[in-house]
Amino acid sequence: MIPERYANYDKIVTVAATNFAAVPGDKAATLDKMEANIREAASQGVDLIAFPEEALIGIEHCAICHRGAAHCDSHHEMAETVPGPSSERILELAKELDIYVVFGLAERDAERPEVLYNAAAVVGPEGIQGTYRKLHLGSLPWVSEGVTFEPGTSIPIFETRFGPIGVIICYDFWFNPELTRLMALKGARLIVNCCGTFSGPGKRDYMVRTTATRAQENLCYTMSSNHVGGPDATSSYGAGNVDKPRAANFLGHSTIAGPSFPSFSEVYAEAGDGEQLVTATLSFEKLHRWESIFPWRDWRATHQTGTSQLIADEFQKLVKGA
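Given the sequence above, the corresponding structure tokens read:
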């Protein structure tokens, strides 16, 4: 049974995760590829499509950022505000095709143009809803995003006709499970992970299983959309001396997962290692079968409030350096 707080939302959503390769240095051509994927998804009855982290500009080795420069002309030229030219173009498609689109980009702060974020924009038929800005940024010598971007300062959820959704980016999802938990506690039943995950030993299993685990531990649906191909960028994922760069290629294997009552965890769709669009139709009635047995969100707000306070207090101690 659908809980009353979700009663007015659609009960079924069809989602698409993309294995995607941006056109290096050519945002217009990349947008054309994104439009082709969006139109194909809509022709298959998809309601929401997700692209990877930094899909609009691609993830490439930037020598200037790796040197720790305070300003990078290339990234600033590729960055946009949201709303901005690319999100406005996606909005027209969203309205025309009645589809939600989540895509990664370099976002320029509208009030502080010198500040950039590694962000994911959320666009739907109703309008441009905003962005999620990556919180945990990698650092030198392994990756340069901590030089290029500033971290976000919020953990938003976004309203859709399928209910609130969470949007998250790569490292925030893989290694920081508390962020997905917070989004689920805020009411998100679908978490969209835009990622740029490199290949490496065991990485396929880790990516697919972690996407499924985040779904299981929060009793929600999850999807990870990843890049494919590779720019011969530097990466920290090699064996041996991690201070030495190695050639890096993106893993692909975009994944859609979630509970499938009576199973806690199921992989609904998984892409391969080439450009591909995979889809799954997800039932919120099936999802809430678990909530009728294990209503963990309600427990957190009722008889487990003491435990919730303890967890919050322990985090507060860590913030203060205990």
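The chain has eleven helices and 14 strands. Try to locate this feature in the token string yourself.
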